[in-house]
Design brief:
The chain is α/β, with parallel strands linked by helices and about 160 residues long. The protein contains five helices and four strands; from the N terminus they run βαβααβαβα. α1 packs across α5.
């Protein structure tokens, strides 16, 4: 039985949140904690349902030893809000949509990923979809640091 559950959410579920899912699993695996966590990702939008992660995201992750090629995009649902303990948004737009879906009773589950970093001077993971390949590496750097922070935070609770 997993004791903790995390859902990473972005707009399309093809760039940032599948990357976060892969990074988080890699960290948990290295710390031998995979069995204690359920990790998933979803998008607030429906455009890419069923699609694999963007090729640029797959390549950037693969360069760090993370295989996200088998993930498929899906849209976040009401059931997700009930099911997951931590619903982690990449940017303020995602967070607002999730809070609306969650309602007052569950809004506390919704957090920004970069809340779990220190001193990086950013509070959103920038959307790399319309940018160059370098954007994906920056996304990975941010997600790696924040996921370490998030896992550490959860284990302290
Ligand atoms: P993601 O990136 O939210 O990190 O998966 C995007 C993917 C697709 C679109 C926007 C952002 N889109 O507009 O199709």
């Amino acid at each position: 039985m997993s004791t903790h559950s995390i859902l990473f959410v972005c707009l399309g579920n093809i760039c940032r949140s599948p990357t976060a899912e892969g990074v988080c699993r890699q960290i948990l695996s290295k710390r031998n904690l995979l069995k204690q966590f359920e990790v998933d990702s979803a998008g607030t939008g429906n455009w890419h349902i069923g699609s694999p992660p963007d090729k640029r995201a797959q390549l950037a992750a693969s360069a760090r030893g993370i295989d996200i090629s088998s993930l498929r995009a899906r849209q976040v649902s009401d059931a997700d809000i009930q099911r997951f303990d931590y619903i982690i948004a990449m940017d303020h737009g995602n967070r607002r949509e999730l809070e609306a879906l969650a309602g007052q009773a569950q809004a506390h589950k919704v957090r920004l990923l970069l809340e779990f970093t220190e001193f990086i001077g950013l509070d959103e993971v920038p959307d790399p979809y319309y940018g160059g390949d370098r954007g994906f590496d920056q996304v990975l750097d941010l997600i790696e640091e924040a996921s370490e922070g998030l896992i550490t935070h959860i284990l302290k609770q």
